[in-house]
Sequence to fold (556 residues):
Amino acid sequence: MKDTYTLLLSVLCTLAYNSVNAFQFNQNTSFEQAIDSILVDYAGSDKPGVTIGIIKDGKLIFQKGYGMADLKSHKANTPQVVYNIASGSKQFTAFVIALLTQQQQISLTDSIGKFLNEFPDYGKGITIENLLYHTSGIRDYMVLMWLTGRSFEKNFRNKDAMDIIVRQKKLNFNPGDRCVYSNSNYILLAEIIYRITRKILPEYSSNLFKALNMNSSSFGNYKIEEKVIRAISYFRSVDNYMPFKNKYTAYGDGGLLTTIEDLAQWDKAFYDSTSLVQHILKRGTLNNGNILNYGMGIQFSTYRNEDIQTHAGAFLGFRSETLRFQKRKISIICLGNSEDINPESITRAIADVYIFGDKNSTALLQSNIDKTVGKSLSVEHATTFTGVYQVVSNVLIHIRHEEGVFNGQVTGQPKQMLYADSSNTYKIGVTNDKAVFSNLRNGKYQQLTVVQKHGNTIAQRLSILSPEDHIRYVGNYYSQEQNITYQFYSKDGNLYFKVGSNAAVKADVLSSYNRIYFDYKNLEQATIDFNLDSNGIVNGFLLSSGRASGIQFVKK
Fold:
């Protein structure tokens, strides 16, 4: 099973960086022209876009905006525009904790209950360190908001986040056993900072930003000058871009407003051996001694066999990433204001050209393939392929046709593009690997074979609940813990569920598992596992995602 799972991951997950030319530049192309070519889709006065900054040896050697910061007022993206960097904010919250630690006002080994009397006693000690490294096991309040149908566009404060967090009756895992990203951790850190200093994080951090010469930066709107240009975030609606209703003011896990120029100032601290930034670069450790690839709000990884430091951010159309090659003293920053922007692909495409001297970049190839191919498949024809295929128990491949795009997804992994090679064969991403569909029966292919150089992997279609069985699942399911109801109903031969302000979701129940898979904008996946009593009657379900597991619902 382990070997099969590894095989599938290698087929469907590691696709974006293969040796296929995505962007080609001739020898006479200037560096700026090369960057312009990479970002051509984000330029123009009729769309949102990005601002790019490149730092070398502490100096901002390239800075340029593409697209518009505010479509209504016709303000362009520039290096002076203020963006919400979302989860990229976490490193700044960690920096404040490092300062309080240096001042001996707090210890990383302190129990969070020392500062938060209202926090539940799970019988497990959770420390400041657990919060910083995402090893607490605390459910992610943002995932809970999605699962319970709460809108991210309505008024929402830190108090509202705290109310959700302290309501939870259980942890995802024992503290220190695993590292699972949870925004709740940094909301709690912001609250602890307030309990210690009696100042909210935006106020307490303001002097730190001044000391760092980050004069246009602030958590929330605290002392942000009226004259600054603030980016508005957008989503694509048919052929137009629409602004998000951004009334969300929680901070600590996100919420930092900043500019390319200010982030260049922050970048300098990473090369100052006397700076407190060095403390947040310390990696965490699990109970079993394994060292994490996560510092305090900083992720460690590699790109093209070189060490990198990074942390991306995404929230309500705002996008951000700083990609730092510390040994080279080079950082690439991308700040964007539309949900269809992938900053990680952009920073790596720029790195391909600027750092590695490529005449072409492959990092954006997958996202560009997604935009340009596979859209000719009709809905009627797509139904012969779409469905869930099982390799072995709990190793599934989901084949979907969404908004004209054909894709495949291994359970819990990102979606990957499939595009036609023949009538029943599709190429996987930019590899030479293929997905071959066979055994057409009753208008649907029953078998999927993943063909690659090292061998084939075969998956069989799983049957879904028939319409005549929908009645067993129809009804209202209530969670006392979350104080929310899921409504299941049948319409036009399909089963759906609805919760809160979320759009209705078509629910394909896998017969052999009594399970439904669904996701949120390809950012988070969840499962509903139905419970049956001894007579086979559905009496409830267990709702779980990677960051909020084990939520019990009872059928009313």
Summary: The CA atoms of residues 70 and 232 lie 5 Å apart.
